[in-house]
């Protein structure tokens, strides 16, 4: 009974494996949709007589400091590019501002006490496709920038440190990878202005990746069928274990029956000989005995031996024209 149950479970789990392995399944996958790159490059031209550099010298990025008395103006280029996974067709507007502010604290606890923006030229609008690069050039008068920010600080009677950033705001609208998009991205260049010089970081590039979720077909994997596969193999093992156990039980029963018959015959073995019953019995008087024990008793009384015909399973005695016989099933084992 258990073997049948386990076989049914094997069939069920096999069908389950087939269904799981052949069914179409999908999953959400995050893929890169487009990337925006924005960076600043700059240089300062030496326009004032000084003991360090000849006039006309151009001071490139990475200097520790740029002195007002040597190079009061800063030439800046903002470089913006756009890369989509497939295609892009955008209207892009860029506007650059000088942002002066009073900040205290740092990180998430930083607070802006005040902020003032000053425009740097007019906004510029361009049309961009996938992989295009947009460059916006402008010049900053650093003493004037310092003066505008300090004026606000003075009017507010704010004595803490002053923060100045050049911020370019990029507004874009159109289609990316065939989908309508609209967004805004800010790119900042911090400037540290002190009494006689200003400082600008050497590394100013930044990027922003935008992802989207797509529905993709998932190939069948072992993880999808591991439970029904485990169930299938478990029941296969159980069936394989139960079949020989059943056979052993059958063998054990037959063996026990044989032993029992041998046990019953054991006391009579010394009175029995093997032989063959005569073919012509018509001349003999036939007496049927009900048991082997009774036949052995008769043999003892008349001083004869019991003859066993193994082919027919018959036990018999012939004495004085009389056949004494006991019939046994010929399939039974001999003694």
From TrEMBL:
Name of one Pfam family that matches: DUF5305
Domain of life: Archaea
Transmembrane segments annotated in the record for this chain: 227-245
Matches recorded under InterPro entries: DUF5305
Keywords: Membrane, Transmembrane, Transmembrane helix
Listed name of the protein: DUF5305 domain-containing protein
The species this protein was found in: Methanosarcina siciliae HI350
């Amino acid at each position: 009974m258990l073997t049948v149950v386990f076989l049914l479970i094997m069939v069920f789990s096999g069908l389950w494996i087939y269904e799981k392995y052949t069914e179409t399944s999908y999953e959400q996958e995050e893929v890169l949709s487009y990337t925006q790159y924005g960076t600043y490059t700059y240089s300062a031209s030496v326009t004032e007589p000084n003991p360090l550099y000849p006039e006309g010298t151009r001071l490139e990025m990475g200097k520790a400091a740029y002195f007002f008395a040597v190079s009061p103006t800063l030439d800046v280029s903002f470089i913006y590019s756009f890369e989509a996974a497939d295609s892009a067709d955008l209207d892009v507007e860029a506007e650059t501002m000088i942002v002066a502010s009073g900040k205290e604290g740092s990180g998430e606890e930083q607070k802006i006490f005040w902020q003032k923006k000053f425009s740097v030229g007019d906004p510029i609008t361009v049309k961009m496709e996938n992989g295009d690069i947009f460059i916006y050039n402008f010049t900053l008068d650093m003493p004037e920038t310092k003066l505008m920010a300090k004026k606000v600080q003075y009017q507010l009677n704010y004595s803490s440190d002053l923060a100045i950033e050049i911020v370019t705001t990029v507004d874009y609208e159109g289609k990316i990878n065939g989908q309508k998009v609209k967004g805004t991205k800010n790119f900042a260049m911090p400037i540290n202005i002190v009494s006689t010089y200003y400082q600008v970081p050497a590394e100013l590039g930044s990027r922003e990746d935008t992802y989207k979720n797509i529905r993709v077909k998932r190939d069948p994997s072992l993880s999808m069928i591991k439970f029904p596969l485990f169930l299938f193999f478990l029941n296969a093992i159980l069936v394989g274990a139960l079949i020989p156990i059943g056979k052993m039980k059958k063998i054990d029963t037959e063996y026990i029956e044989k032993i029992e018959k041998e046990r019953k015959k054991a006391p009579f073995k010394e009175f029995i000989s093997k032989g063959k019953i005569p073919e012509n019995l018509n001349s003999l008087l036939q007496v049927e005995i009900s048991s082997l024990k009774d036949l052995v008793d008769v043999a003892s009384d008349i001083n004869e031996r019991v003859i066993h015909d193994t082919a027919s399973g018959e036990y018999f005695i012939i004495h004085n024209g009389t056949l004494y016989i006991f019939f046994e099933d010929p399939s039974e084992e001999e003694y």
